[in-house]
Amino acid sequence: MKTFSIGVALSFAVAMTSCTQPASDDTPEKSAKPTKPANPTDPTHPPTTKPSGNRMAKEQSPYLRQHAADPVDWYPWGNEAFEKAKKEGKPVFLSIGYAACHWCHVMQRQSFQNADIASYMNEHYVSIKLDREERPDIDRIYMEACQWMSQGRGGWPLSGFLTHDRKPIFVGTYFAPDRFLDLLTRVRSFWKDPEERKRLIAQAAHNTKSLQGFQKRGAAEELPGIDIMDDAATAIIGTEDTAHGGFGRAPKFPNPSTPLFILRWAERTGSARENALPVRRLLDALLRGGIRDHLAGGFHRYSTDKEWKIPHFEKMLYDQALLGVLFLEGWQIWRDPKYASAVRETLDWCLTDMQAEGGGFISAYDADADHVEGATYVWSLEELNTLLTKEEARCVITWCEATEQGNWVEQAHPKDATKTNILYSRVTEAEVAKTVGIDAAKVHTTLASARKKLLVARAGHPQPARDTKVLTGWNALMISTLARAGAVLGEPRYLNAARATAAMLDAKVRTPNGTYLRSFAGGKARHAGELSDHAGLLVAFIDLFEATLDAEWLVRAQEMATILDTHFKAEDGGYVDSRQDDLLFQTRNIYDGARPSGTSLAALGLVRLSTLTGDQKLLGRAQTVFRTSHDTLVRSPGASGHALIALDLLQRPALKVELHGPKADTLVAPLRDEYQPFVSLTRATKPTGDGTVLVCVGTRCLEPATTTKEVRERIAAALGK
Q1: Residue 595 domain-assigned?
Q2: pLDDT in tens, 44-92
Q3: Residues 131, 215, 647, 571: is their CA dihedral positive or negative?
Q4: Rounded to an integer, what distance in angstroms lies between the CA atom of residue 693 and that of residue 707?
Q5: I need a surface site. Which of 74, 175, 463, 607 has the fewest CB within 10 A?
Q6: CATH classification of the domain holding 68
Q7: Residue 260 lies in a domain
Q8: Which letter, b or e, does each residue of 553-574 get, where b requires 16 or more Cβ atoms within 10 Å of its Cβ?
Q9: HEC states along 545-562?
Q10: CB-CB neighbours of 222 under 10 Å
């Protein structure tokens, strides 16, 4: 073999990368049998060397510190590693992962703690470990390279072979140890041949140029049309799994940006209550499924099966925040008490179990415990019968169809019994009552009693590690959710928690020039914040303002809008994701994955802030952002739910409800828990009287309202209903 081309890279991807899926922002790795600790008699877990420690011990990231005892001579991302590679004439191996990632742990145990593999890496490579959550800007570049080289597939851990000037030769994901060692050897064999090395370097340059080309933008003269919202909604709803809920096939992510857009589209086209039933089916499926933590509250990251039964067991902060908003809006639309309960359970769990020492919220809980994915959350039949009363056990076992062999199997090993059971609502309480022979009310109280006992007992299971770093952008999402939930549900403690989180970020990660660092861990703030961090705070400050009507937050939002332009504005008026100077190139992204993109959040924040302040320059900035993203958005509008939410507000006359005088608060208080996604709420800086409300469309205000009924009528008239 005399060349190492894209064709060779693709052959590697097909032959060696066995655990990838079509990638989005949080693409799963395929499910596989739970991996146990290294065992000298187990050929898949060769003996490891006695760890001597490496540079990761000096890092603050919990994920990087997990690798401090690896025999691999890890370097952090930085000039030292690349200068060493240049000086010694070695290729760079880059491994990107995150603390809650199951397959990252598997590859660590199988390969990075393997004496022979580590020795080979140390001799022939300069190896870099990176936490994707600390540096998503770096991860984004090499994930795009992985997707390009492997026909749209990606995942974590991300495994890249680079030149000393950071250009990608080949990027894949998880590799089993034998395949990984083979790949290390093959790349090395090319590298040590002078002619082949030239080809590798040329190929890396070609790869980089091609990837840079994907980032080029050209501002369109017109904004994307409103019709793309109909196209996107039709396409999304067309992918609904009507039997099991949700959109698309397994593995299934909630991806809240998508259903949040569908709710607004349905309301614009008639009534969300009648038109957004696919979203209601999704909410009900999430509440029934194993993706929900039925004992403590909150949700796991995604489901590996189509029924939402078998979760990938990480619990991420951003999922709690975004699903909290989705269920909150579900409550506003359908008034189903279980949706409001889901919001409270999720936020209360976060306030109890995800609060960081010193304030703010930690990032995640690991998928693994004691080296087995999901060990914390599953139950043997014997446990259920031992821990519970006979009646409680009968109800729980019937409810989730627990069995001796286990009510779930691993997707990659369907013939192997797990002998453990996932808690999920396989049948309704009414069906449990019929089977067990007691009335439905008794079933409800019995299951509630059983859950309390199981939650206490679960503390005796192996417990997942916590990723204790505080990420600015993820905390911004939680501030928004807490603020909105506090206002809608009438819960002052949520509003207080939102304020406290904002104060913590100000104290720990805000810099003297008003920008924010991205991560706080080990008592230190590190890494310049991304666009998504600052745009997330822009939206969070707006949500805090509308929830409290405290003018301080409106001022903070205006300051953040200025920072977006000062630090992230591109030449064509759009935004870049990061301004770090150690990147191969800058990326620009409007597509939403498990979290909204920075550009989507920025556009949404600018439009909302323009409505609240009347500042037309902000509206013009949002229009420019959409013009620079025109082709990307039109090509795949369904992938940008949050951007479409912003575009909808941009393309229609702004609707503002303005309170005049303190007594006006009582007029809008009953409207707080109603679904009004197109209304911006503010207080007049120069009130005309006390106890009136003005509903304004664009620059035109309707007749003042002096009762709650009149406020509702004015809003309906402004919306054309």
Answers
A1: no
A2: 333 334 445 799 999 999 999 999 999 999 999 999 999 999 999 999 9
A3: positive
A4: 8
A5: 463
A6: 3.40.30.10
A7: no
A8: bbebbbebbebbeebbbeeebb
A9: HHHHCCHHHHHHHHHHHH
A10: 9
Burial of 707 (0-12, 13-18, 19+ CB in 10 A): exposed
The domain in which residue 705 lies consists of 655-718
Residue partners of 58: CB distance under 8 A and separation at least 6: none
Strand, coil or helix: what is 250? coil
* 212, amino acid identity: Q
Please name which of 684, 627, 691 lies closest in space to residue 221, comparing C-alpha atoms.
627
Examine residue 251 and say whether the peptide bond preceding it is cis (omega within 30 degrees of 0). Answer: yes
How many structural domains are present in the chain?
A: 3
Measured CA to CA, the distance from residue 172 to residue 189 in angstroms comes to 18
**Cβ contacts of 528 within 8 Å, gap of 6 or more:** 515, 517, 518, 578, 579, 580
Strands 517-521 and 524-528, sheet pairing? antiparallel
Nearest to 147 by CA among 280, 288, 3, 6: 6
Domain boundary among 432, 460, 488: 460
CA gap 543, 56 in Å, rounded: 38
Sign of the torsion formed by the C-alpha atoms of 130, 135, 136 and 141: negative
Look at residues 418, 435, 460 and tell me which one is the last residue of a structural domain.
460
- Rounded Cα distance between 507 and 499, Å, is 12
The radius of gyration of the chain's CA atoms, rounded to the nearest angstrom, is: 26
450 within domain boundaries:
yes
User: Residue 693 burial (CB < 10 Å; 0-12/13-18/19+)?
Assistant: buried
CA angle 451, 457, 463 (to 5 degrees): 110
Q: How far apart are the first and last CA of the chain?
A: 69
Is 261 a member of any domain?
A: no
Residue in the structure block whose two tokens are 């303190």: 662
- Tell me the CB-side half-sphere exposure of residue 682, using CA atoms within 13 A: 25
| Separation between Cα atoms, residue 419 and residue 436, nearest integer Å | 23
**Nearest-CA neighbor of 306 among 292, 285, 278, 326?**
285
Distance CA 634, CA 42 (A): 52
Beta bridge partner(s), residue 129: 76, 95
Tokens, residue 564: 């977006």
Which residue bears the tokens 């000037």? 165
Sequence-separated (6 or more) residues with CB below 8 Å from residue 157: 95, 96, 97, 101, 103, 104, 107, 173, 174
Predicted local confidence at residue 499, as pLDDT: 98
Which amino acid would we find at residue 517? L
Q: Return d(Cα 240, Cα 246) in angstroms, integer.
A: 6
User: Which CATH number characterizes residue 674's domain?
Assistant: 3.40.30
CA dist list (Å): 28 to 102, 314, 501, 616: 10, 11, 30, 42
Question: What averages of pLDDT result for each successive group of 10 residues across the chain (721 residues)?
Answer: 41 38 38 34 36 83 96 98 98 97 95 97 98 97 94 90 98 97 97 96 96 82 90 96 95 96 96 96 98 98 95 96 98 98 98 96 95 94 98 98 92 78 96 95 97 98 97 98 98 98 98 98 96 98 98 98 98 95 94 94 98 96 95 91 96 94 93 95 90 93 95 94 82
What count of residues does the chain have? Answer: 721
Averaged pLDDT of the chain = 91
CA 181 to chain CA centroid, Å, is 32
